[in-house]
Amino acid sequence: MLPRLERFQLITAGQTEVSVLIVDSDVLLAERRLRAGELACPSCGAVLAPWGHGRPREIRGDLGARLFVRPRRSRCTGCQITHVLLPEVIWPRRMDAAEVIGAGLEIAALGMGHRQIAAFLGLAEGTVRGWIRRFRRRSEAVRRYFTVALVALADDPVMPEPAASPLADAILVITAAHRAAAVKWPDINTVSPWAFASRAIGGRVLTCTSSAS
């Protein structure tokens, strides 16, 4: 349903290839799709099969909420790669929910420093500084990716006006692509722009190294 879904690749110490596949935040829906053979391997296109669960994780949500998740694991019936199915509200290798990180980035786009943002969100300064630094380094790649997505989604795409920084430009085009997706698929209105971004770019909002193609 969303633009090109991609995987965030990880290599374990034993050199067994594992990847994170971003799926719907509705755990029951994702489980039904997995058991029905509706999830495909992003590497070879073969059907994914259930393959146990990952370790339980605690994720910091909005307004101090705590989310406890135990990611589902799957294995490709073709290439045998193992995939961790991660809900779109959680980003790979992050202990904070997509909405929390996104809020920090949006505030940074307004010119506030990481110390103030950290105090506002009640998080460690180093954590927030890391988000901002990573997103700044990847902002142009993210902007290009979602510009392509916006053109593909909107019947008459309107590109956002240039903002004060590349970081802000990337955020504006993510928001525009989210709005365009919601016009095509009204259910997207129930998904935040940052969860949408995670699903569309395979969880690589902070690790994007290339534009869409």
Structural summary, described in words:
It contains six helices and seven strands, in the order ββαβββββααααα. By secondary structure, the protein is α+β, with helices and mostly antiparallel strands. The strands form two sheets. It has a five-stranded mixed sheet with strand order 1-2-7-6-3, with helices on one face. A two-stranded antiparallel sheet has the order 4-5. α4 (125-153) crosses α5.
What value does the Rg take, in angstroms?
A: 17 Å
Write the element-wise H/E pattern from the N-terminal end onward.
EEHEEEEEHHHHH
Please indicate the percent range of residues in DSSP E strands (runs of 2 or more). 15-25%
Low-confidence stretches: 1-17, 209-213
Mean of the pLDDT scores?
87
Number of strands: 7
Report the total helices.
6
General shape = globular
Largest sheet: 5 strands, mixed
Give the termini distance in whole angstroms: 17 Å
Helix content: 25-40%
The strand order across the widest sheet is 1-2-7-6-3
List keywords for this structure.
disordered N terminus, two-stranded antiparallel ribbon, 213 residues, alpha+beta
Short summary of the structure?
40% of the residues lie in helices and 17% in strands. It has 213 residues and is of the alpha+beta class.
Task: Give the arrangement of secondary structure elements.
Elements: E1 7-11, E2 17-23, H1 27-35, E3 48-53, E4 57-60, E5 66-69, E6 72-76, E7 82-87, H2 98-109, H3 114-121, H4 125-153, H5 166-184, H6 193-200
Parallel strand pairs: 2-7
Antiparallel strand pairs: 1-2, 3-6, 4-5, 6-7
Helix pairs in contact: 2-3, 2-4, 2-6, 3-4, 4-5, 5-6
